[in-house]
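Hello,

Our lab assistant flagged a job as stuck in the queue for most of the afternoon. It eventually completed. Since we weren't sure the result was trustworthy after the delay, we are filing this so someone can double-check. Below is the sequence as submitted and the structure that was eventually returned. Let us know if re-running is recommended.
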Amino acid sequence: MIYLKSESEIDKMRESALIVSRTLAEVGKHIEPGVQTGTLDRIAEEYIVKEGGRPAFKGYGPKGNEFPATLCISVNDEVVHGIPGKRELKEGDIVSVDCGVEKDGYFGDHAYTFAVGECDEKALKLLKTTLESLYKGIEQAIHGNRIGDMAYAIQSHCENEGYGVVRELVGHGIGKSMHEDPSVPNFGRKGKGERLRTGMTLAVEPMITMGSWKTKTLNDGWTVKTADGSLAAHFEHDIVVREGKAEILSTFDYIAELSEKKENILYHG
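-- returned structure --
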């Protein structure tokens, strides 16, 4: 079932999304060689609570294997759902930080992949291309188009650069639940899939690899890595389908401000 949102619901979603946006920038201030991923997680949780939100990822999932942290922090060949802990970031790593917040019954959920210190040009190109593909997908998220138009825009941009597009994991609807219908894959054909309608709210999240698109899940039941050990990048925005042009509820502007102060923050807005 796909739920079209009213403007008052969209206002609440925007508020939750912007808490996520600010949290990502707050975490970004502390991303540097030597920091433990668990430290970043604690910073995020404290900030979200201070902003009046609830960490949406913590406790999410099947009984007995609930996600244990506020952030998904995925480093290098980890695609998504990495569990924060004692791991220390190193110079040259790339690290996806994915965050979810619930406030007043509505969810925000988006992600940014940061460069840690000096990264090589191949890694930076992967990040740049993945971020570009996110916006190319969003450009197609207008009333009357189809999910396949978004998926094709993302897939073609990344595959034209020689990258793999993950198949097993997709974007999704979002609203009163963190995951709603429809699924939003990053691969597909023009003119196929669910028709987009004004008021649909979606989390668009290309997950792109430097090698094969195939993945594997670790024994922790959460962490997804590339099957061939290649680097992976992940960017995500929350959007509303509109007539003519989609509205992006989340923002990377706070990260852009941070990038002016910290050289290790990649930003291609």
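-- support follow-up --
The delay was a queue issue, not a problem with the job. The result is valid. The chain has a mean pLDDT of 95. Helices lie at 7-28, 37-50, 121-139, 147-160, 253-259.
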